[in-house]
Write a structure and sequence with these properties.
about 425 residues, Growth Hormone, Chain: A, 2 domains, 16 helices, about 80% helix, about 0% strand, disordered C terminus
Length: about 425
C-alpha cells in the first residue's frame, strides 16, 4: 500500500477523481467535435473543401503530437509523481481551449490543436495512477470504469456540443475551457499523489522519454511487448468506426445524419454499460486472459457480421456483440501492469499511448481508402464492407498474439530495477 494513499477510503476518493477527470476531459473533447468543422469553415471563408483539408491536417497533427508527447508525460510522472502531471494537463488544456475560442485564423487554430495534443495526458497518467493504487486483481475493473468515463464523454459531449455550436461555433470551446479548469481546481484540492518518492524513478531519462526509446523500453518485457501489439491492433481495428461508419451507413442503408447519430449514441451507451457493469465481474470470475480472448472473439464476430450485413437491422443486431470488444482493452491493460514496477508504469503507459496514436495516424487513411476502392468501378469485387473485414483480420492476428502472450505469471516484483 502506498504511503501516499494510507487508507482504502482515500484510494476510493482518488479513483473517483480519476474517473471525473477522464470524464471531463473527454466531455471537453466531445464538446468541440460538432463545432470545430463549422469554425474551421468560417475561418476558411466559407469554403467546405478548404475546411475538409484543414480538418484532416488537424487530426493527423493531433495524433502525431500525442505520439511524441505521451512518453515524455509518462516519464515525467515516473520521476516527479502523477499528481503534478495530471494537474498540468488539466490547466494546459483549459488555457488552450480559451486560446482556440479566441483564434481568429486557421494557423492559430492549428497551433491550438497542436497544444491540445501536448497536454492531453490525462488518459495516459490515469492508467498509471490506477496501477499505483489498485491491487492487480482489481485493475481490469478500474480500467473498465475509466473506459466507461471515456464512453460517456464521447456520447454526451457531442450532443451538448451540437446544441452549443448551433448558437455559436466558439461557444463549445468556452464551455470546454470551463470544464477543464474546474477539473484543475478540483484536483488541486482533492487529488492525492499516488507514487511516493521512494517508488519513483531515480532520474528523468530522455532515452526512454522519446517515442522510439519508449517503444524499445517495451522490448525489455517480452510479455508486455506482445500485449502492446495486441493493444495496438485492437485500437487500429476500432478506428474503422470513426473512419467510415457514416459513409458506409449512408451508402449501404441510406441512413442520414440523424439516424447515424442515434446509432452511434446507442453504441456509446452499450459501451458504457459493458465497461461499467460487465467487465469487473467478468474479469474477476474468468481472469484477464479469458476476458481478453472473449472480447476479441466477439469483436471479430461483430466486424464480420457488419461487413456482410446487407440490411440495417442486421447491423443493429450485430452491435451488442461487437461492443463486447470493450473487454479487451481493460484486460490487456491489467495484464501489462502486472509485469511492470511502479517506477516505470508511466513510461509504459506513455509508450502504449504512442502506439494508439500511430493507429490514429494509419487507421483513418487505410479504412477510408479501402472503402473508396471497393465501391469504385475499378474494384475487382464490389465490397462496401471491406473495411470491417480488414478490421476483423487485425483482431484475428491480435487474438493469436494474445493467446501466446496473455499469461499473467510474472509480477511487478520480478521486473528490472527502475532507472
Amino acid at each position: 500500500m502506498s504511503a501516499t494513499l494510507p487508507a482504502p477510503r482515500v484510494r476510493r476518493a482518488a479513483l473517483a477523481f480519476i474517473f471525473v477527470t477522464v470524464l471531463i476531459d473527454f466531455l471537453a473533447f466531445g464538446l468541440i467535435l460538432p463545432g470545430l468543422p463549422h469554425l474551421v469553415e468560417r475561418l476558411a471563408g466559407g469554403s467546405t473543401a478548404t475546411a475538409a483539408y484543414w480538418i484532416a491536417v488537424f487530426g493527423t497533427a493531433f495524433a502525431a503530437i500525442q505520439f511524441v508527447s505521451s512518453p515524455i508525460q509518462g516519464a515525467l510522472s515516473d520521476r516527479f509523481g502523477r499528481r503534478p502531471v495530471i494537474l498540468l494537463s488539466c490547466l494546459g488544456l483549459g488555457v488552450d481551449f480559451v486560446f482556440m475560442a479566441l483564434a481568429d485564423s486557421l494557423p492559430w487554430l492549428f497551433v491550438g490543436r497542436v497544444v491540445s495534443g501536448v497536454f492531453s495526458a490525462s488518459f495516459t497518467i490515469a492508467n498509471a495512477y490506477i496501477a499505483d493504487v489498485t491491487p492487480p486483481e482489481d485493475r481490469a475493473r478500474s480500467y473498465g470504469i475509466v473506459g466507461a468515463a471515456f464512453g460517456m464523454g464521447l456520447v454526451f459531449g457531442p450532443v451538448l456540443g451540437g446544441q452549443l455550436s448551433h448558437i455559436d461555433p466558439r461557444l463549445p470551446f468556452w464551455f470546454a475551457a470551463g470544464l477543464t479548469l474546474l477539473s484543475f481546481c478540483y484536483g488541486w484540492f482533492v487529488l492525492p499523489e499516488s507514487l511516493s518518492p521512494e517508488r519513483r524513478a531515480r532520474k528523468f531519462d530522455w532515452s526512454h522519454a522519446n517515442p522510439l526509446g519508449s517503444l524499445l523500453l517495451l522490448k525489455r518485457y517480452p510479455q508486455v511487448f506482445g500485449l502492446a501489439a495486441v493493444i495496438f491492433l485492437v485500437n487500429l481495428a476500432q478506428y474503422v468506426y470513426p473512419s467510415v461508419f457514416v459513409l458506409f451507413a449512408d451508402y449501404r442503408y441510406h441512413w442520414k445524419e440523424d439516424a447515424v447519430g442515434w446509432v452511434l449514441g446507442a453504441v456509446g451507451v452499450l459501451s458504457v454499460l459493458v465497461n461499467a457493469l460487465l467487465i469487473g465481474p467478468g474479469v474477476k470470475r474468468f481472469g484477464e486472459r479469458r476476458a481478453l480472448l472473449f472480447g476479441m472473439g466477439f469483436g471479430v464476430l461483430g466486424f464480420i457480421v457488419i461487413g456482410f450485413a446487407d440490411a440495417g437491422w442486421i447491423l443493429l443486431a450485430a452491435l451488442p456483440f461487437g461492443t463486447l470488444l470493450a473487454f479487451a482493452g481493460p484486460a490487456a491493460q491489467a495484464l501489462v501492469t502486472r509485469q511492470v514496477g511502479a517506477a516505470e508504469q508511466g513510461r509504459i503507459q506513455g509508450a502504449l499511448t504512442s502506439l494508439v496514436s500511430v493507429a490514429g495516424i494509419v487507421g483513418p487513411a487505410m479504412f477510408a481508402g479501402s472503402f473508396g476502392y471497393f465501391i469504385g468501378t475499378d474494384a475487382p469485387v464490389h465490397l462496401p464492407g471491406a473495411p470491417f473485414f480488414i478490421a476483423a483480420v487485425f483482431l484475428c492476428i491480435g487474438t493469436l498474439i494474445a493467446w501466446r502472450y496473455a499469461q499473467p505469471k510474472a509480477t511487478a516484483a520480478a521486473v528490472p530495477e527502475p532507472t
